[in-house]
Structures are given as structure tokens and as C-alpha cells.
Amino acid sequence: NDDNVAWKPASRPVAPPPDAWRELADRPSSGETALVDVVIPVYRGVDDTLACIHSVLTAQNETPHEVVVIDDCSPEPSLTARLDEIASMGLITLLRNDRNLGFVGTANRGMKLHTGRDVVLLNSDTAVSADWLDRLAAPSADAVGSTPPLSTHATVYCSLPPPPDIHPPHP
């Protein structure tokens, strides 16, 4: 019976409706200079990608940031069109690769965009919440080179709570 399982994977995300983006575009801008670039390389997955971007834009953070989305020659015209719409509202900075560079090449392009800023690299199927960026940026100092991710289902030592198949209960 699945009702007795302590851990279940999250349901698949759904792209927010057009009105949700218009509401975000109508919010007043803080006018602060961004300190952090949130770089999101994109290839495919309309629902995952748009839910990711929406979660970043709606999270309550004090850290000034810019959302940089890089379309890595997506084969999905509907995704490309939606990214264009969101960028035209001023919600994201949209870059488009002339040819597919793959995840690493696209991530590197995004990380080079503003050399004086910290960078958070997000997979396009990530969903963030609350003050995620403030908590991630808090330890930022000259002595910190990297802050590892935490996930509901990632590799060993990155998951909270740990999936049962990685850390089975002790007898």
C-alpha cells in the first residue's frame, strides 16, 4: 500500500498560466543592482522550465538578483515562444545559443555574463521556495567557493530527507 510509504517523489510541475506572469510583471521593481545571477540553462520541458522560472521569480528573497535564462537551441517551439514572452515582460534576461552547446557550455556562457557577480546555477527542473537565495548567499565570503545543493531526491548526502534506498533504516 503506497499510503504507508514515508517518502514519495514530488508530482510533476505544471507551467503557470499567462496571468501569473502578467501579475509578476506588474510588481514594482526594487531598482537595486543585482549581486547574484541565477543562471538557468534550458533545452526542453515547457512545464518543468516555466515552473522553475516562476518559482525563482516568486520566492521571497532580499538578495538582489537577475534571472538569466539561456535557451540552448531548444527543439520545442512552444518553450521558445513562452521564454520570449516572459523576457518581453522584463522578468528574465534571455540569451539564445546559435547552436546547441550542451549543458556545460551553456552554463559556462551564463556564468561569464557578469564577471563581478556571484552565480547560482539551476537545472531547469528545479523548484525553489521561500528565502532560498538568501540562505544560499548567507555564507558568501572570500573563503567560500561553493555551496552544495540540498534536494528531496538527489545523490548521497545531498538529499533531505534521505530517500529510503540510499540510507535504509537501521535494524
**What is the strand arrangement across the widest sheet?**
3-2-1-4
Rg, rounded, reads: 17 Å
Low-confidence runs of at least 5 consecutive residues: none
Note the main sheet.
4 strands, parallel
Helix content: 25-40%
How many E-type strands? Answer: 4
- What is the molecular shape? globular
Structural class category: alpha/beta
SSE string, helix = H, strand = E? HEHEHEHEH
Return the average pLDDT rounded to an integer: 85
Alpha-carbon distance between the two ends: 22 Å
Q: How much strand?
A: 5-15%
Number of helices: 5
In short:
By secondary structure, the protein is α/β, with parallel strands linked by helices.
Topology:
Blueprint: H1 18-26, E1 36-42, H2 46-58, E2 65-71, H3 77-88, E3 93-96, H4 102-112, E4 118-121, H5 132-137
Parallel strand pairs: 1-2, 1-4, 2-3
Description:
With 171 residues, this protein is α/β, with parallel strands linked by helices. The protein is built from 5 helices and 4 strands; from the N terminus they run H-E-H-E-H-E-H-E-H. The chain has helices at 18-26, 46-58, 77-88, 102-112, 132-137, and strands spanning 36-42, 65-71, 93-96, 118-121. Strands 3-2-1-4 form a 4-stranded parallel beta sheet, with helices on both faces. Helix 2 (46-58) links the parallel strand 1 (36-42) and strand 2. It is globular, with a radius of gyration of 17 Å. The mean pLDDT is 85.
Please describe the structure with a list of short key phrases separated by commas or semicolons:
171 residues; alpha/beta; four-stranded parallel beta sheet; 5 helices; 4 strands; globular
